[in-house]
């Protein structure tokens, strides 16, 4: 066999393996070979529901990080602090993924994530955030649990709307992951309320 053919065999075999691992989602567009990861992502179909999800989830996640950050210095309950750290550790990489999706689709990121969230179900307004920032100890813990649970429930609804109406496989995957993690956090928060 000519050497050029032998060099192509591993690439062909890898492509066949990867094709077999596909989730079966139809992709009506493909990026040119050798294109950047952003161009490859942009070639995957998306719809208005995907864009709405990414923008809303970005705002929601950023507010979740802001809210959880308060618990690091104000919460009394060590388990509540651990939950808040988990929220931050989960949301920060998801914020990066959401931003990359929005950019790859050629869409504008929200100028102010808080404005994207205003009057949406589960939005925690500036007054509530300021009130939380002024509390500490058990008073903070009680109000934090209530506010974070409301915020998590809204996050599940945002994610579930994407899994029902979205088209982009990456956005749908992120929505499914978000829904599962936030449902677990809601369960944990209910435990704090009962404890």
List the uncertain runs. Answer: 1-35
- H/E topology pattern: HHHHHHHH
What is the overall pLDDT average? 79
Approximate helicity band: over 70%
Q: By helix and strand content, what is the structural category?
A: mainly alpha
Radius of gyration: 21 Å
Major sheet characteristics: none
First-to-last CA distance = 71 Å
**Topology, number of strands:** 0
| Relative strand content | under 5%
Question: How many helix segments?
Answer: 8
Q: How would the global form be characterised?
A: elongated
Q: Which SSEs are present, and which pair or pack?
A:
Blueprint: H1 3-20, H2 37-42, H3 48-74, H4 78-104, H5 113-117, H6 126-133, H7 137-165, H8 169-194
What labels describe this entry?
0% strand; single chain; 195 residues; 75% helix; mainly alpha; disordered N terminus
Protein architecture, described:
The longest helix has 29 residues, at 137-165. This protein starts with a helix and ends with a helix. Helix 4 runs antiparallel to helix 8. The chain has eight helices and no strands. It has 195 residues and is an all-alpha fold. The radius of gyration is 21 Å and the shape is elongated. It is 75% helix and 0% strand.
Short description:
The chain has helices spanning 3-20, 37-42, 48-74, 78-104, 113-117, 126-133, 137-165, 169-194. It is an all-alpha fold. The radius of gyration is 21 Å and the shape is elongated.
